[in-house]
């Protein structure tokens, strides 16, 4: 059992998928002698017991995550204060290895010359020192493909007011879940100080298909009501339509509101059908939502500064390239096998 499966991309399933069972497996079992088949059934019962123990393992992993979230919190609070400009970090806190390396590489004379030039520039055009790290979270949203696909131009001025994103884990005894909290400074768009999105999870084998269990699974999500200021709701737009009276022939103009593309639709997700029946588009939309929620929890929140600088994006791209290269190699191997088969072909046969 891999303890890392409960923490990171491997430990979270997206609801809706079940393990494929080729017919050949069932055929194989049907061909077994009755006595052997009976013993295989005993092994399956043992496998179900393993799945139940694994479920308990993941519940404890969740508790461990909740415990360590409390240890991370003061660090994330300090990050928020620096981003918003509430706190100015000390010189010691701002030291970073790359700064020291660059300073060592520069010759003493060059550094002095650069310092003199900088002083001249500052005297000529005094630059206003920006507060905190402007547009920190907006920059991340625009840099990450998964988030930028949701982002619209009219969302950007609102997200400039985003101060922090936090992850909260469900308490012991409560149903398994995590909540994303988006903290905003006072703004001219809505009254909410915090927008929330709750992701509900299940960490137990499905009684109808226990062997498909591979860890906690997001099964549903719930957004929140946004208290928009009048005329500022970017999730709807007003359109005008002309209507012609059939009898009199007179024309009137009617205005109505229709849904509008926006990141803030993220807080009004599609609801999972109690019967489990959804059309293909709705299933895809819901699966994408679950994936985004998981990405916020596992990547964006813990490594925000690295997504801001782009370093985490480079890591993600490298990982994808490595996966692609491995796939290419497998494909080439398969082609090679085909060539071998062709070489064994005997035209006289």
Please provide a written account of the structure.
With 349 residues, the protein is α+β, with helices and mostly antiparallel strands. The protein is 48% helix and 15% strand. The chain is built from 11 helices and 7 strands. A 5-stranded mixed beta sheet has the order 1-5-4-3-2. A two-stranded antiparallel sheet has the order 6-7. A hairpin with a 7-residue loop joins strand 2 (162-169) and strand 3. The two termini are 51 Å apart.
Short recap of the structure:
With 349 residues, the protein is α+β, with helices and mostly antiparallel strands. It has helices spanning 23-31, 34-84, 91-94, 97-105, 108-124, 136-143, 145-148, 156-159, 280-300, 304-309, 311-343, and strands spanning 13-14, 162-169, 177-184, 194-202, 217-222, 236-244, 251-259. Strand 6 and strand 7 form a beta hairpin.
